[in-house]
């Protein structure tokens, strides 16, 4: 195999034998076009079959291979080895408990995601024969970027607020709730507000902006969260200062 | 219980303040947060000035003289730097909070942030005019 030998330091944790995580170093002969995921696959196949990590598509679509690479949340399938110098440190995504090696426990995110009801809640459910819910290109563009989220949780690993306040609903869940709130076919904003407008909803965000910087799909959760704050503030004023506007 | 029976023992990592230095973006954020202390401090100084003004000409003159002390000049220089950092970083974030869609397209970020800068400069000009600077 041509190319250089890359040194990887991978955080290992096997609950049966390890009291706490430890780094293990591997030397991986790699090709020019390899990403960190290829190196992990090489380790698994040739050096150490006990290494555990999640992956599936190898093309930044499935969102499974999120991990910390040199302290930055990245998709392992999108992190080219040629962009790194020296030893590359690979760790599980921050702010999530470690299940085993690079695999984290994601139950907290899954529960939060379902709390914001990230699906179409139409005002009137149409009969199938009545046809599709139609939308103009402008209406589609209003939310399209948020629909690119692949639930990879890099934004949660980047967000210090989520690390410090685990109750915080977090960037991706709020961005996905906002995606449906912005959708012209949807009428579920009020139902989502219970989770979004709570203290541990959008208001826990102090606009660090790291979520949007690390997103591999160029979604802007930080923007979504600020827009949710503005809408929630308008709601509050309407309810308290102009109650007659409320139907 | 279920976790014990399955042999699961998820490891929780501690959160320390090292995240601030992990990437320059976190340090920039902390500086932005810290800058509000100077904004607040300057607002307090204005309140003290108003109080001195209400106490009469002698107190007001004393306040003006205190403003010319080296410590006061140093504070003003630092506060100005932090205020500019505070304003610029926040104005640059406004396009995220206030996107404007006209037809299919969104207004460019520079237009939204630019409108805020224009408002800032216009209000500053009014203040300078009221202060008799021009």
Describe the structure.
- The complex is a heterodimer of chains A (247) and B (134).
- In chain A, a hairpin with a 2-residue loop joins strand 3 and strand 4.
- A five-stranded mixed beta sheet of chain A has the order 2-1-5-3-4. Chain A has a two-stranded antiparallel sheet with strand order 6-7.
- Chain A is built from nine helices and seven strands, in the order E-E-H-E-E-E-E-E-H-H-H-H-H-H-H-H.
- Chain A has two domains: 5-104, Beta-grasp domain (Ubiquitin-like (UB roll), Roll); 107-245, Fumarate Reductase Iron-sulfur Protein, Chain B, domain 2 (Orthogonal Bundle), CATH 1.10.1060.10.
- Chain A has helices at 36-47, 107-115, 137-141, 154-158, 160-164, 171-181, 189-196, 210-214, 221-241; strands spanning 5-12, 22-29, 66-69, 72-75, 88-91, 98-100, 103-104.
- The model of chain B has no long low-confidence stretch (mean pLDDT 94).
- The termini of chain B are far apart.
- Chain B has two domains: 16-94, Up-down Bundle (3 helical TM bundles of succinate and fumarate reductases); 98-134, no CATH class.
- A two-stranded antiparallel ribbon of chain B has the order 1-2.
- Chains A and B meet through helix 3, helix 5, helix 8 and helix 9 of A and helix 2, helix 4 and strand 2 of B.
**What's the architecture of the largest domain in chain B, going by CATH?**
Up-down Bundle
CATH class of the largest domain in chain B: Mainly Alpha
Distance between the termini of chain B: 75 Å
CATH class of the largest domain in chain A: Mainly Alpha
* Biggest sheet descriptor of chain B: 2 strands, antiparallel
- Tell me, rounded to a whole number, the average pLDDT of chain B: 94
Strands of chain A, count? 7
